[in-house]
Amino acid sequence: MSTDKNRATAAAILPLVGGPDNIVSIAHCMTRLRITLRDRSLVQDEALKALPAVMGVVEDDTYQIVLGPGTVARVTPEFEALVAEGRSAAPAAPADTHAVTADELAAQGAAIKNAQKAKNSTPFKLFLRRIANIFVPLIPALIGCGIIAGLGGFLTNMHWVPAAVPALAAMASGFMSLIAVFVGYNTAKEFGGTAILGGAVAAIIVFPGVAKIDAFGQQLSPGQGGVLGALAAALLAVQVEKWCRKWVPEALDVLVTPTLTVLISGLVTLFGLMFVAGEVSSAIGTFATWLLATGGAFAGLVLGGLFLPLVMLGLHQALIPIHTTLIEQTGYTVLLPILAMAGAGQVGAAIAVYYKLPRNRSIRATIKSALPAGFLGVGEPLIYGVSLPLGRPFITACIGGAAGGAFVGLFNQLGTAFGSTAIGPSGWALFPLLDGKSGMGMTIAIYAGGLAVGYLVGFAATYFFGFTRQMLTEFNTGPDADTAPEAAPTPPAATEPAPDAAAPVPVGR
């Protein structure tokens, strides 16, 4: 039955993005179906947002449909199959021709214009996205291994089933011990090289035999430089390979190019990159520890308050290498619980919007459908469907995130440092991944307290400061506003719903 449901979702999405012939490529991340389109104008945005399974859409370097964790991994294969079937079949009849009104066209045009403005595809921003693309495919393994590590730690602390602990440790640590290889593989693939050569060069970093090599007067250690070293080594391998492809004769290419790529990149990695990347990795860990130990409250305030704009721009994934480096060094990343407070502020703000707009059924339905995902740390539906289109509630959501971040950061400053053993989850979904030096009880209590602060401050800031009188008049209305009783306690609505009132609503009509 679940397969039928996922196929039905894919079948509903396909005609609304222009059909099979309009699809260039298909991929997915933790929460989004990412589609490269031939003709953007064929997409029916409003109809797509109205689908029950769609939490929102994001236009970036690809067209991204937010379906939520778990769902997207099941819908994507069905979507790919339907696209393949559609391309091989005879041209089908046109899909439902939705009669687009002038207001809808104007809203759609404004949305596209704003998306293009926000896109701002600078070389630096595009580079950060490509770096993020290297690490996003690794997140499911990081989550699974992190939860297994947490389970092993719990059994150890409780002195339960001691025979199972070594097996759990092997499962949790196996991937992390070889993560540099996967990073090298994905890096070469992302930047146009041969993926396996990137993995081969990165494997040098984790090979135990490097302990016999001296570089810069120091003996190397396996894993030195970690994921940053693997990233740099694979980037170098891509450049060496491209140079070889340009100059090596075709008859010798299959022998000479791989050999020179591994040899040159390997030597530079052993006698340069491992040392430099090791120093950078150590500096990141030292700085993060110092920052939270000396100015944890202020650092948490800034990090928690600025994280929603990073999510809005899709740049939050550029932090993945830093999280991964911290996990390699200490077993957990102290930054993620603080950044997760931004989602708490967003949830609190959305609840306040729900109560401030009792007559706008569309926005309230959107909030009701997106809140469960918001509590689990999936913030895009609430960002793009509620707070960002409304404007001021996005700012007040950031205030809630800043307050929660300051709360968690303060306890780090007081000596109760903790973090997440994996990356990806947030909100309530982060509880199984928490780890710290002060015991699980204290760790869970502080994180839960931060969430509560984020919820409350986000709600209060939005309820009292998130709306002007004009906004309440404009948005506190609905399709049935013209039939509402005269004595309603809310501000009088216009005889026709304002065109902008429906604009922020992506789902749940």
Helix and strand arrangement:
Layout: H1 2-16, E1 23-28, E2 32-37, H2 45-49, E3 56-59, E4 63-66, H3 71-88, H4 102-119, H5 123-135, H6 139-158, H7 164-177, H8 179-190, H9 195-206, E5 214-215, E6 218-219, H10 226-247, H11 250-313, H12 320-330, H13 335-339, H14 341-356, H15 361-375, H16 380-390, H17 392-413, E7 418-420, E8 434-436, H18 440-465, H19 469-475
Antiparallel strand pairs: 1-2, 2-4, 3-4, 5-6, 7-8
Helix pairs in contact: 1-3, 5-8, 6-7, 8-9, 8-10, 9-10, 9-11, 10-11, 11-12, 11-14, 11-17, 14-15, 14-16, 14-17, 14-18, 15-16, 16-17, 17-18
Describe this structure in words.
With 509 residues, this protein is mainly alpha-helical. Strand 3 and strand 4 form a beta hairpin. The longest helix is centred in the middle third of the chain and has 64 residues, at 250-313. It folds into 3 domains: 2-119, Glucose permease domain IIB (Gyrase A, domain 2); 131-284, no CATH class; 331-501, no CATH class. The chain has helices at residues 2-16, 45-49, 71-88, 102-119, 123-135, 139-158, 164-177, 179-190, 195-206, 226-247, 250-313, 320-330, 335-339, 341-356, 361-375, 380-390, 392-413, 440-465, 469-475; strands at residues 23-28, 32-37, 56-59, 63-66, 214-215, 218-219, 418-420, 434-436. It has 19 helices and 8 strands.
